[in-house]
Amino acid sequence: MLFREFAELCDRLETISSRLAMIDVLSGVFPSLSEEELPVFVRFMRGKIFPDWSSEKLGFGPGLLYEALAYVIGKKRQVVISAINSSGDTGRVVEDLLEKREQTMFFSEDLELLEVHARFLQMAKTSGRKSQQERMRSAQYLLSNASPLEGRYLSRLMLEEMRIGIGEGVVREAVAKGFAVPVEIVEHAHQALNDLGEVALLAKTDPAALAKVHITPFRPVKMMLAQAGSIAGMVEAHGFLAAENKYDGSRFQFHKAGGRTAIYSRRLEEMTASLPDVVALLSAATDHDVIIDGEVIAMQNGKPMPFQTVLRRIRRKHGVTDAADAIHMQPRVFDILVCDGETLIDRPFSERRKILERVMKDFVAPQMVSDSPEEIESYYHAALDDGNEGIMLKVLDSPYLPGNRGKLWIKIKPEVDTIDLVVTGAEWGEGKRAKMFGSFLLACQDENGDLLELSRVATGIDDAMLAELYELFKDKIIAEHGKTVVFEPDVVFEVGYAELQKSTTYAAGYALRFPRFVRLRDDKDPSEVETIDSLFRRYNMQNKAGINEPGR
Ligand code: AMP
Question: Residue 489, SS3?
Answer without folding.
Answer: coil
